[in-house]
Amino acid sequence: MHDILPQDQPLWAKLRKAAEEIASTYNFMRIDTPIMERAELFEQSLGSTSDVIEKQMFVLKGRGGDVLALRPEGTAPIARSYIEHGLSHLGHPLKFYYEGPMFRYEQPQAGRFRQFHQVGFEIISGENDPIYDAQVIVACFRFLQVLKIKDLNIQINSIGCAKCRPNYRKKLTDYYRNKEKSLCADCRHRLKLNPLRLLDCKEKECSEMKKEAPNSFDSICADCKRHLKKVLEFLEEISIPYTLNQFLVRGLDYYSKTVFEIFSEGFGLAIAAGGRYDYLIDLLGGRQSNGVGAAIGMERVLELIKQRNINLLGKTKPKIFLIHIGDTAKLKAFALLEHLRQDGIDVLEALGKDSLKAQLKAADKAGVNLSLIFGQQEAFEQAMIIRDMKSGAQETVPLKKLVAVLKRKMKK
User: Quick one: which of 127, 195, 279, 303 has the fewest CB in 10 Å?
Assistant: First the structure.
């Protein structure tokens, strides 16, 4: 788990603002769920053979004996909230977005943290319409575009529905049965319980075997093929690039039909991923409803932004530092700072330091463009010395003209 330090906060604020703007543009409503839920919520919805449940979930016991988990993902809690609060009364489709921390027991490495943050978009509807799949994909795609991330590509597939998926599972089982001894230990376990998960393995030998495995598109039913075709047509209509990946399955059991991941060329990890979940709400005890959702990894997006030196913050305003000399100047400076800030002038200070040398050192460390020098004489004369820290040039201006002069200098 990691700290988000002050120097990174402006970028985080920019990401959150972008998520808020995209949500507003595409009519997604904000929802926040607790970071802790009953562990059974995730065990029931994600699948007992998923890596999240078997290896990655942080589980703890409450004082009352409840088995709780820090949320590893955002979709199941939203489905739980939808059922618990009867949100279907708001009318379908319901569009939600969220932003916040998730927790998985990952091996720490670049792009993988045990506490990480996601922005997610979810649509719950009464209709099983491929337009909703496309809308979720578009929301993720536009969010990444707003952040100036280029060379985006969507890998997309259909893993079928409850009717046709058993046929595909059988084909996979038949294909891998004679190769079981060559599989990694995890995949030998998956073969017995959930053979689709074999296609998600990143081990070298398993990845090689996957190349000749039956692909899902040859096994799904006509309805699932039509659904995927319509999703792709919607994406093509607005020129969003995609690649069919017929071995893409995603790692969570609640997915059905459409699954997808979004990559940026040259960056090895998916920066967004999601899919359709038509059986999740029914599985959790709610009235049958269809859903589709996706999540964007904020740490991965930030890593990509830093790698590519993408400037999201624009030109920074010149920094100004107020230096006081003497007790009278310190007293007057305290009120003066408030007036400057109310007039839209951001000013740094070190009023807790009385030494001129210490204040100059603080100003230098802050990398300011301008310093304001306010001494006993300036306090008496109602004036201020403005010093350009690069050229050394300085001028004295009346306090009543200070805001106007500073704003003029800040525009240069």
Answer: 127
Q: Please state the three-class secondary structure of 229-290 as a single string.
A: HHHHHHHHHCCCCEEECCCCCCCCCCCEEEEEEEEECCCCCCCEEEEECCCHHHHCCCCCCE
Least confident of 91-95, 250-254, 386-390, 403-407: 250-254
- For CA atoms 77, 83, 88, 92, the dihedral sign is positive
Mean pLDDT, the chain, whole residue set: 91
CATH of 6-164+220-307, one of 3.30.450.20, 1.10.246.90, 3.30.930.10, 1.20.140.10: 3.30.930.10
**pLDDT tens, 372-398?**
999 999 999 999 999 988 888 999 999
Q: Quick one: pLDDT at residue 168? A: 87
Q: Are 359 and 373 in contact (CB under 8 A)?
A: no
Between CA 323 and CA 349 the distance in angstroms is 7
Confidence (pTM)? 0.87
- Please identify which residue in the block is written with the tokens 């964007």: 296
